[in-house]
Amino acid sequence: MSGIGYRIKCIRKENNLNQSQFAKSIGISQGNLSEIEMGNSNPSAETLVSIRAQYTVNLNWLLTGVAVDDGMTYEDQFEKRLIEVFRNLDDYNKSEIIEIIKLKIKLKTS
Fold first, then answer.
1. Around Cβ 39, how many Cβ atoms within 10 Å?
2. Which chain regions cross the lipid bilayer (predicted)?
């Protein structure tokens, strides 16, 4: 299940909102949101623009499941967020994060 409705549901859950709260924030009814999340209908262009504006999501990711920003392609929103946060660190902390990730990978494969 990786359609646009699923991605919209992920955005809603990531922001700890119920359907009514999220629907109100993007200007649609809760019933309409429910149909979109279940994959029974597609969001309008206005709804997509509203989601993008309210929740600062990549519109390409929202539409296709592939995030492209500044010529970069991201596997998912987690990878995109990781890179955005990582860019704000100083060199020392970047090195530390890289070592932590290497350790996590090593522990996973052991």
1. 13
2. none
